[in-house]
Amino acid sequence: MIYGGTLISVSDMERSKNFYEKVMEQTVEMDLGVHVSFQNGLSLQSNYEELVGVKLEPQEKPDNFQLYFEVEDLDAWEDKLKALEGIEFLHGIKEYPWGQRVMRFYDYDKYIVETAESMESVAKRFLSQGLSAEETAERTMLPVGFVEQFL
Fold first, then answer.
1. How far separated are the first and last CA of the chain, in Å rounded?
2. pTM, 2 dp
3. Going by DSSP bridges, is the β-strand pair 6-9/42-45 parallel, antiparallel, or unpaired?
4. Tell me, what's the pLDDT at 138?
5. How high is the pLDDT of residue 60?
6. Which CATH number fits domain 1-46: 3.40.630.40, 3.40.1790.10, 3.30.70.890, 3.10.180.10?
7. Per-residue pLDDT tens for 97-151?
8. Which residues belong to any copy of the VOC domain (predicted)?
């Protein structure tokens, strides 16, 4: 079996497509009007209830999962998102004990989107701050060999 991706039901296809394509910088692979697939495995569907043939109860904020994206410059992304109308943040940038910085917000259909530094970026940041490869590996829980490639 091969995992085929994640499909989210959206209320306004054009607004959602524009958000993921223009704001989140995802590349459209296929656009069928009611269904849009992106190269990363994310798909949007505007007539989901009709598609599955079952009456569904829409969730205002389905907070039991999130979409996850990695970026190199999290501060720039936070500024970009704060400039958009209608984006509600769960929290701004925060740092976890392993050093990764993340922020979470709702997209226009109230799905949680996490945007985080890649762990490669975290390792590079720690090394540039003077931590050794071993110290960086210990802090981030990454293998020393992975960290050493950024020296």
1. 39
2. 0.88
3. parallel
4. 98
5. 77
6. 3.10.180.10
7. 999 999 999 999 999 999 999 999 999 999 999 999 999 999 999 999 999 999 9
8. 2-118
What are the residue ranges spanned by the domains of the chain? 1-46
Average pLDDT of the chain to the nearest whole number: 94
User: Which residues, in sequence order, are CB contacts of 108 under 8 Å at separation 6+?
Assistant: 10, 11, 12, 15, 16, 19, 86
CB contact set of 114 (below 8 Å; sequence gap of 6+):
66, 67, 68, 69, 102, 103, 104
Q: Can you give the pLDDT at residue 48?
A: 80
101: left (phi over 0), alpha (psi -120 to 50) or beta: beta
